[in-house]
Every structure is written in C-alpha cells, then in structure tokens.
Amino acid sequence: xxxxxxxxxxxxxxxxxxxxxxxxxxxxxxxxxxxxxxxxxxxxxxxxxxxxxxxxxxxxxxxxxxxxxxxxxxxxxxxxxxxxxxxxxxxxxxxxxxxxxxxxxxxxxxxxxxxxxxxxxxxxxxxxxxxxxxxxxxxxxxxxxxxxxxxxxxxxxxxxxxxxxxxxxxxxxxxxxxxxxxxxxxxxxxxxxxxxxxxxxxxxxxxxxxxxxxxxxxxxxxxxxxxxxxxxxxxxxxxxxxxxxxxxxxxxxxxxxxxxxxxxxxxxxxxxxxxxxxxxxxxxxxxxxxxxxxxxxxx
Length: 299
Known about the structure:
The chain is of the alpha+beta class. The chain has helices spanning 14-74, 87-93, 99-106, 108-111, 138-144, 151-159, 288-294; strands at residues 77-80, 123-126, 176-178, 195-197, 204-206, 211-218, 224-230, 235-244, 251-252, 257-261, 272-277, 285-286.
C-alpha cells in the first residue's frame, strides 16, 4: 500500500563498500606483507654478509698454515741478537751447519761488511739456504771438525788462562799502540787519558779484576763503554766497544767478558781505549799499565 508504505532506506553500494574495505584493509594487510618480505630478504642476505669475516679468517688461517709449512720444510727461523752475542756463539747454539761462516753468508745484508760487529736487536735468519746444500760426505765432516772460529771466540778461550793469582787480568790479549799521557790535539784534555790496545773489532774485552759495573752504554766520544768499580776502590773504563755483555749494577770477576772491542764513538779505527781512574768520571785518570803491572799482569 503506497500510502502506508515505509520509506525504504537506500542500500549502500556493496561494490563501493567492498572497494573501501579493500582499500583500507588491503593497505593494512599490504604493509605487513611488505615488511615481512623485506625481513625475509634481509635474513637471506645476512648469511652472505656474516660469512665475509669468517671467509677472511679462514683465508688467514690457510696462509698462516702455508707459511708455517714452508718454514718447516726449509728449516728456517728468525733469531734476535741480544747483548753478548757473536756469530760463532749463535751458530754453535743454533747448530748452524757450516758454522759462523754460513750464518754470516746468509745474513750479510743485515750484518754488513764486518762479521764481528753485530748489534742487539738485529734479526738473523737461521738455515735460510739449508735445502740447497748437498748432504756432507763422512770425509767432509771429518775435515770440517776443526772448524775455524772467529777471532772473538779464539781470543775468549785464550783469555781463560790469563787471570793472575791475585785475580787480575789484561783487558785484551794485545799490545799497546798509544801510551798513557801521549800529548796531542786529538784529545780534549791535551793528552791521552788512557792507553789504546790494538784489538781488532770483535775481540772479547775482559774485566781486569772483580767489582761492580757502574755504567754500561753510550758514552759520547767514547762510544759504547763500560765503567767498573773494583774492590780496591779504583775504577776501570773500556771504550769504543762494538757490543756490551754486562749491565749497570752487575757483579763481575777478573777475566769476565764485558763486551767486544770495536770502533764506536770518536775513533779512527778498531781498538780498545782503557783507563784506570780514582773516580767514575773523566779527569780522574792514573797510569793504567802501572796499575796492572802492580797487580801481577804482564803487559
């Protein structure tokens, strides 16, 4: 009945609502899907990124093993020189086949032209060329037995029997080249405050009697030097050394090796400058030969 009929509420367009829902709901759904997709991609990419340091570490490990294998195969190693070392001593201790001559030949670029002059801190290669050497015949071993040692080692053995009954020793087994009190402009005091012994570079230098090392190190014009206070109150000085074998505060006996002769500091060539003093410093010198002779040392 039209007159009594109710006004019918217009229907909303289902298609439009569907689009709205799809537009709103779709956006809500789309965002998590995009985020999930990104996260999934990040997870897939992560193993590749994480594998980079692992790969690098593995490569370093392989390189290290290869280096160690190569060193083991060739029998090479590095030796760091310490105070008191000389080539024959190192060669004997490290069982270098061919002795100090082989050790010097393998490290000539490091050591330089003087095999007797090696300094603490030098890095020497031990056994660098060993694989290239042919096995030695029994006869060759017998011939090599009386191996020639550097002058430094020969002098060290010679000096073991030079200590007198009173416990005194000559500083080196050599003659005097420049006497005490020699006049000249070469010295700041106008005269020579000690005596010079004609010791070639690398000759072992001995403490002349028992005492305590007062100083051991660089002494300016004296180069590397050692000063020892002896039991009788006198001081001895040993200058121009190529290397030192003692340190300050150390106790020594007569004949103890304290270093190797050389030509460091203000020097015209290898020799040992030796002084006897009444005090530890320059300017308190007395006749060194008279002191040694008075204690039974023949010079």
